[in-house]
Automatic annotation (TrEMBL):
One of its GO terms (molecular function) is monooxygenase activity. The lineage of its organism: Bacteria, Bacillati, Actinomycetota, Actinomycetes, Kitasatosporales. Pfam families: FAD_binding_3. Keywords: Monooxygenase, NAD, Oxidoreductase. This is FAD-dependent monooxygenase. Residues 118-334 form the FAD-binding domain. InterPro entries: FAD-bd (IPR002938), FAD/NAD-bd_sf (IPR036188), PheA/TfdB_FAD_monoxygenase (IPR050631). PANTHER family: 3-(3-HYDROXY-PHENYL)PROPIONATE/3-HYDROXYCINNAMIC ACID HYDROXYLASE, BLR0106 PROTEIN. Coiled coil: none annotated.
Length: 385
């Protein structure tokens, strides 16, 4: 089988490597418009449950990821000078570049053709030349956009602004942060992805963003191409949390999050994968996991339906792919929607006592309940235990 993958993120690479393992005689080509390793973002976070799934299905990748990951068990909420901690959760994070390097190596070992720094050929040409074309080109997928009616695409761009940064401080937990500017709350979350660095994401509604002076036009860039004023201003706003540590960017600018949904994930021999098919708000950290799960399921169904040895049409496999992945993605998107809406309306929770505020934050998406959080709650250096 000849397969073209447009987009060299974790989902596209993982699919390519599995297909070649299942069908060593087949041809798989991945086009990635950016150079190898040139990527946005910093750390990728996984729950222990997700890692267990990787360990069971792909122990070699699990071992490689585990050797390069930071692990922690707590969630901390920093609010109005107090810290409330919830113990016993279990997470790990790996640098996005590290994860990509592992997947590049997997693809190379499997015989996948990787074409970095190249825009994929026109999709009509790919559809004519390949048995299957996979659009793994992200939330702003050009392939999907050109066929939005066929896929039944809906795009919901939210009003809040966010910026993705890193800090040279290894946090010891998934840490939610709240800073009040006097005209509204800015909130963020941080988590370690190496021994020296943590991801640091900040979000604010339009009013708080403007009131904090963050709406100023970009007047200067850092060496990595980030909005210099935003980086410096956020260091001031979150000074108590940063403890003198510095923020860094990676072409970091203020953006608005877009929720991507599609009624159908395939058309003929063209299929959507990962963020091209669906997005989940970064506050629940599931985007990379969902993309890699899409990839594993799609590769397995192509094998099980006899497509990889030339004996079956992709259509049945693609229908099964939508049916298999649709419910899991819908559940994740429901949790993500509840989470993003809670943060958009964070002002409604401001003024609560620290323990109550933390409880509402931790249960916002429905993934944690009162029973999941232990009863003893003390503020400042205390925990749900």
């Amino acid at each position: 089988m000849r397969i073209a993958v447009v987009g060299g993120g974790p989902g596209g690479l993982y699919l390519a490597s599995w297909v070649r393992q299942f069908d060593p005689a087949g041809e798989v080509v991945v086009w990635e418009r950016n150079p190898a390793g040139d990527t946005f973002g910093f750390g990728v976070v996984f729950s222990d449950g997700t890692l267990l799934g990787i360990k069971e299905t792909d122990p070699a990748l699990y071992d490689a990821m585990a050797a390069r990951s930071e692990r922690w068990a707590d969630i901390a909420v920093r609010y109005r000078g107090e810290v409330v901690r919830s113990a016993g959760h279990g997470f790990a994070a790996i640098g996005r570049k590290e994860l990509l390097r592992l997947l590049y190596r997997r693809c190379a070992e499997a015989g996948v053709t990787l074409r970095f720094g190249e825009q994929g050929p026109p999709v009509e040409r790919l559809l004519a030349e390949y048995d299957l074309v996979v659009a793994a080109d992200g939330a702003n997928s050009a392939i999907r956009s050109g066929r939005s009616d066929a896929f039944g695409t809906s795009l919901d761009t939210r009003s809040s602004r966010y910026i993705w940064l890193a800090v040279d401080k290894p946090f010891d937990a998934l840490t939610f942060l709240v800073a009040e500017s006097g005209h509204g709350a800015l909130h963020g979350h941080a988590y370690p992805f190496s021994a020296e660095l943590s991801t640091f994401i900040v979000e604010a509604d339009e009013h708080a963003w403007r009131a904090a002076g963050l709406a100023a036009p970009i007047a200067g860039l850092t060496p990595d191409g980030s909005d210099r004023f935003a980086v410096e201003r956020l260091e001031e706003i979150f000074a108590d949390t940063l403890d003198g540590h510095r923020l860094t960017g990676n072409r970091s600018r203020w953006r608005r999050f877009t929720v991507v949904r599609n009624r159908r994930w395939h058309q003929g021999n063209l299929v959507l994968l990962g963020d091209a098919a669906h997005t989940t708000h970064f506050s629940i950290g599931s985007g990379t996991r969902l993309a890699m799960e899409d990839a594993l399921v799609l590769a397995g169904l192509l094998r099980d339906h006899g497509c990889l040895d030339g004996g079956g049409s992709p259509e049945a496999a693609l229908v099964a792919y939508e049916q298999r992945r649709g419910p899991a993605v819908a559940a994740a998107q429901r949790a993500a929607q509840a989470s993003l809406e809670w943060f958009e309306d964070i002002g409604l929770a401001m003024g609560r006592e620290a323990s109550q505020f933390a409880f509402e934050l931790l249960t916002r998406g429905g993934r944690l309940s009162y029973e999941d959080l232990t009863a003893a709650v003390r503020s400042s250096d205390s925990s749900f235990r």
